[in-house]
Amino acid sequence: MNLKDIKSYCKDPKNRNTVNVGLFIVLIISFHFIYLGWQALDYWPVEKWVNQLMVWSVNMLYSQACWVLDHVFHIDLTTISSARLLATTNSEGGWARVVIAPECASLKQWMHWIFLMVLFPGPWKHKLWYIPIGLVIIEWTNVIRICGILMMQIPWPNSFHIAHDYIFKVFFYFVIFLMWVLWVEKFYNPTLKAKQHE
């Protein structure tokens, strides 16, 4: 298959869904490795700003998770704000706990979302409001993730790694995927169809 065949395949409307999903996967994986490389370079040349943003986002996530656990789920919380630690007793009388480290903040996923939406095709008049709404949804998805990790440990004291590494990490990226699907179905594909009928 040569370059001409690839372009022809990509332009064929019958292949649009396959091409869209392929582009989504390429962008998601690409950003993951770009971010890891940038992280290895200590976020050069904006290390100071990224670190400040990370501290701010950790503090915000900690405050939001405390509020939700207290006011929505009425969990009897023990907190150590300097360590960003949330804890409560589990079913065995021990501690269910979560420490919100910088890696737990939404910063990487915010950047992931911006990278994906800026590079994925579609009308900018909608991107200008859809990207910020996506950032808010990602933040509150992360709040649900933190609360869920803590609350799963109450009945299942040894569930931290399953909850953290599998259940809620998959949930996080599933939400991003759903937002992208909504973008494609409601904004990108209709724009393409409109251009074809012009």
Write the layout of secondary structure elements.
Blueprint lengths: L2 H9 L4 H25 L6 H26 L5 E3 L4 E5 L5 E5 L7 H13 L4 H29 L7 H37 L2
Antiparallel strand pairs: 1-2, 2-3
Question: In total, how many beta strands?
Answer: 3
Helix content: over 70%
State the low-pLDDT regions, or none.
none
N-C termini distance = 31 Å
Structure description:
By secondary structure, this protein is mainly alpha-helical. Helices cover 70% and strands 7% of the residues. It has one domain (45-196). Strands 1-2-3 form a 3-stranded antiparallel beta sheet, covered by helices on one side. A hairpin with a 4-residue loop joins strand 1 (78-80) and strand 2 (85-89). The relative contact order is 0.11.
Brief overview:
With 198 residues, the protein is mostly helical. It has helices at residues 3-11, 16-40, 47-72, 107-119, 124-152, 160-196, and strands at residues 78-80, 85-89, 95-99.
Brief descriptors of the model:
3 strands, mainly alpha, 6 helices, 198 residues, three-stranded antiparallel sheet
